[in-house]
Amino acid sequence: MRYWERAGGAHTWREMLASDRTMLLRRCTYSGRPFGEPAFVETMERHFGRSWRRWGFEKFAASA
């Protein structure tokens, strides 16, 4: 409980978990798509011989 409070409490965690980047991570997790910048996803596509739908990670990479 102390860690949670030191890390910002309910307000901070609520904001973090509602962020667009977290939502994109969840979408990737449930779909099996790699989470990362376009170059990373392209490497994984070549390695596994398949392609994944693009979901606009680029706007998250630019803001990170």
Task: Quickly list its features.
about 60 residues, mainly alpha, 5 helices, about 70% helix, elongated
The largest β sheet comes out as: none
How far is the first residue's CA from the last residue's CA? 28 Å
- The coarse overall form would be elongated
Tell me the radius of gyration: 15 Å
Q: Could you give the topology of this structure?
A:
Elements lengths: L1 H5 L2 H9 L2 H12 L6 H11 L8 H7 L1
Characterization of the model:
With 64 residues, the protein is mainly alpha-helical. It has one domain (20-64). The chain has 5 helices and no strands. The protein has helices at residues 2-6, 9-17, 20-31, 38-48, 57-63. The longest helix has 12 residues, at 20-31.
